[in-house]
Design a protein that fits this description.
Length: 842
């Protein structure tokens, strides 16, 4: 990137301080004068009379005394001037600090911008909450809104509309489903009770048991027709034809709490595949309901302690939370996919059909479910996720045909959550990797591009050849919408740069014509160029909401499909005003070569007023994540703790996207395949060393690294694999320390199996626990919550054991009953980190 190269060249320039040059010149002149006087003195003492000699001596003494006095006065004056300058500088610093980011506001996310708060439900209507916590229906064609759920509505003493965190409108727009009494479970899942509000009469209809007790429900999904809905209670699926019909049909009876999950994912599928609390999918007509089941009977249990409240009698004994959590090499949950014909539920024999997984995949993992017209499309991968099959299934016969098949020798498949289908179900769009040799890429490299597959019934799998619709050394990141009427596809890509994301439009009738960038020249209301975009389209693409999310304060704007701006949805004016007088760090980007014809992207946050000459040295803090397919270096807007440190503590903060990261081709992304904890760590160390050596203002002796989750793992390994002490100290928050302790689907996707026949040596090489010696002479802080269901507290305890047995001193901060995000202790957590860094950089 040009910015990075320019910045690198600037880093090599040595700019001398003119005041220092004048001082050196003055000193040299003084020494010359003194030499001349001494020479004169020696010459005179050999030739003149004694009287003249004494005159010279007297004059010399007077001169020396004068010089001493003048020097004293000069130094005193200089000291006074320097002291005054220091006072002025100190006074300016105090004044500047008042215009810096506030720690409390950062910790409590008060600089977080508003995001698009609506959901498209038709081609011109958005369901949303207004500023008064009413639920409203906004019309994009008339720019008007109607209240359909009033903020004063109460149920059992609860203001269920004003406090609603989850709400959905029925397809016929007669009922509003409101969740209340929320109880969080895992990242996406929760328990709640639900009330359906009749929009016309405002009558409340709670979902209750036959004896009138509100049900604690795990998920609810409206039918796409009318106001029927399906829900999951106690791990089983129920269906109601309409809200008015009080009869609920139980569709499954195999569900068991903490053992068999139907219509909802278990822990590992929720976290690593579906990213949702639901595993229910209605067909477009509403006649059929597909659902996934996950049998965890043979999946082993991870016991997590719960300590309770201090001083509470109920907390005398630690409680155990039993979590079905598969770990590498152990038994995985068994996934199955079924579909039920809802028109047959009146009969005793419910028309439920199993849709089998491909038989050639070993221990198949369900990777995605869609409907293509009235056929179910299921994506499956093998256990280690390097072979993929997409099947299209007849819901009547349960026969599934493979419509896409690919095996990777080096790499993996991410979950298939990006498939798009034509309304007749005969065409499919997806993001798929393709070679880009014609664009100058290496033969072994591939890039993710928009891809078209014709699913017409004629011909077999060999005739369904994926056709790349885009090409070049960039990444298509998301398919936004498919306008079949005008034959246009809208998508996001990094065509300009890996740090930039724009929206493009491609006409499928003329795919050889380059896509049109719809946001490359877009200016915000603050007259800033939008360089990082996202969008949400209406059902038939007549309108879209564009989110400009960087580099400036995010803005949300409503457009019609022609690109005409209709409404500034939210300009985040309050946030913009609060930042108006704040002096923020300067952001710069660099590209640093890392060998193998690859380069790392670097993002720097430079403290306000940073002296780039090198006369003042600044501490450097690397914030690392480093996981496969991740990326940090973008032009997205964000104000977080890292920015606060750069702004208030005069710390240079850097993000480094090296090998393993996404958006720069799959050769770079797959570099760490089956060997996590190697190349991505070396890149963090070596690029940090490059910054130390090429940026004159970086203090080599005060460099730290910190990260969370995979970033905590990367931090620990960066210290452990750093014998030359590039880093003085590090902070690992909730780190993985050995992949045998993490879940199967994530670990085995990137590492394979921890068996002698597969990749046991790779697991040993990737472990942090067995290579702690280089941490001995570094400052290290280990932070973890004991109730972390994601990266278990066990991980940090195993690392602590290794450090203690090696007699390596370190600091640790344990948070009882806190989960992976440490939400309940954020002030204490960040103050702990800040104090540790103060000590490190002292």
């Amino acid at each position: 990137m040009s910015k990075g190269r320019s910045y690198s060249r600037y880093g090599y320039v040595l700019i001398q301080d003119p005041d220092a040059a004048e001082s050196r010149t003055g000193t040299a002149s003084a020494f010359s004068s003194t030499s001349d006087v001494n020479m004169l003195h020696r010459d005179g003492s050999g030739k003149g009379s004694r009287r003249l000699h004494y005159v010279y001596i007297g004059a010399g003494l007077i001169l020396v005394a004068a010089i001493i006095i003048l020097g004293y006065l000069y130094n005193s004056m200089q000291g006074t001037v320097l002291h005054a300058q220091s006072l002025v500088k100190a006074r300016q610093t105090v004044e500047e600090r008042e215009n810096r980011l506030n720690a409390k506001s950062v910790i409590h996310s008060r600089y977080e911008p508003n995001r698009f708060n609506g959901t498209w439900i038709t081609d011109n209507e958005i369901l949303m909450k207004d500023a008064y916590d009413n639920i409203v229906l906004f019309r994009a064609d008339t720019l008007t809104s109607e209240i359909i759920g009033f903020n004063h509505t109460t149920y059992s003493g609860l203001t269920i509309v004003a406090d609603a965190f989850d709400y959905h409108l029925s397809a016929d727009k007669k009922y509003l489903m409101i969740a209340h009494s929320y109880h969080k479970l895992y990242r996406y899942s929760f328990f709640a009770s639900y009330v359906a509000i009749n929009i016309e009469s405002q009558e409340l209809r709670p979902i209750v048991s036959p004896d009138g007790i509100p049900l604690v429900i795990q998920t609810v999904v409206w039918s796409p027709v009318g106001n029927g809905f399906a829900y999951v209670f106690s791990n089983n699926i129920y269906y109601r034809k309409s809200v008015e019909d009080n009869k609920d049909y139980q569709l499954t009876n195999t569900g068991r709490i903490n053992t068999v999950y139907t219509g909802i994912p278990d822990w590992v599928y929720e976290e690593e595949v579906l990213s949702s609390s639901s595993a229910l999918w209605f067909s477009p007509s509403g006649r059929n309901l597909a659902y996934a089941s996950f049998d965890d009977n043979r999946t082993m249990i991870m016991t997590i302690p719960f300590y309770g409240n201090p001083g509470h009698p109920g907390s005398q004994y630690t409680q155990a939370i039993n979590l079905r959590y598969p770990k590498p090499g152990r038994v995985n949950p068994v996934a199955s996919l079924n579909v039920v014909d809802l028109s047959e539920i009146e009969s005793d024999m419910k028309a439920t059909t199993n849709l089998p997984a491909p038989t050639d995949l070993r221990e198949p993992v369900l990777s995605g479910v869609n409907w293509a017209n009235e056929s179910v499309v299921a994506a499956w991968v093998n256990r280690v996720q390097n072979s993929a099959r997409i099947t299209r299934c007849s819901v009547n016969e349960g026969v599934c045909d493979v419509i896409f098949s690919r095996d990777l020798e080096r790499g993996w498949f991410e979950p298939f959550d990006h498939l798009q289908f034509s309304s007749d179900g005969k065409k499919m769009l997806m993001i798929l990797s393709h070679s880009q040799e014609a664009a100058g890429s290496s033969p072994e490299d591939t890039w993710d591009h928009l891809t078209y597959i014709d699913l017409d019934d004629k011909g077999g799998i060999k005739d369904k050849v994926p056709l790349a619709l885009t090409s070049g050394m960039f990444t298509v990141t998301e398919i936004l919408a498919w306008d079949e009427k005008e034959n246009n596809v809208y998508f996001l890509s990094t065509q300009e740069s890996p740090t930039v994301q724009h929206m493009y439009r491609l006409n499928l009738a003329n795919p050889t014509i380059p896509p049109v960038c719809m946001t490359c020249d877009l200016m915000t209301s603050a007259n800033q160029l939008c360089r990082y975009s996202g969008a949400s389209f209406s059902i038939n693409t007549s309108f879209y909401v564009l989110s400009c999310i960087g580099p400036g304060v995010p803005e949300i704007t409503l457009f019609d499909k022609s690109g005409k701006q209709l409404l500034h949805w939210d300009t985040n004016e309050e946030l913009r005003s609060s930042l108006a007088n704040i002096i923020l760090p300067t952001v710069r980007y660099m590209t640093v070569p890392i060998g193998h014809n690859m380069a790392a992207q670097v993002k720097l946050f430079l403290p306000p007023g940073l002296d780039e000459t090198g006369s003042i040295k600044y501490p450097l803090l690397i914030h690392v994540y480093g996981g496969p397919s991740s990326f940090q270096v973008t032009e997205r807007f964000s104000i977080d703790w890292n920015l606060y440190l750069a702004d208030n503590k005069d710390i240079v903060v850097a993000y480094i996207d090296g090998r393993n990261s996404a958006l720069k081709g799959n050769a770079l992304k797959y570099s760490g395949y089956r060997r996590l904890g190697t190349v991505e760590i070396y890149d963090q160390i070596n690029v940090t060393r490059y910054l130390q050596e090429n940026l004159p203002y970086i203090d080599k002796t005060r460099t730290a690294i910190w990260g969370w989750s995979y970033g905590g793992y990367a931090t620990g390994l960066a210290l452990a694999l750093d014998p030359s002490n590039v880093f003085k100290c590090g902070i690992s928050v909730a780190p993985v320390t050995d992949w045998i302790y993490y879940d199967t689907i994530y670990s085995e996707r990137y590492m394979g199996l921890p068996t002698f026949e597969d990749n046991l040596e790779g697991y040993k090489l990737a472990a942090l626990n067995n290579k702690v010696e280089n941490i001995r002479n570094k400052q290290y802080l280990l932070v973890h919550g004991t109730m972390d269901d994601n990266v278990h507290f066990q991980q940090s305890m195993m690392l602590a054991k290794s450090l203690q047995h090696a007699d390596i001193l370190f600091q640790t901060q344990t948070y009882p009953d806190e989960e992976h995000g440490l939400i309940g202790v954020r002030p204490h957590f960040y103050h702990t980190l800040e104090r540790f860094l103060d000590s490190c950089f002292a």
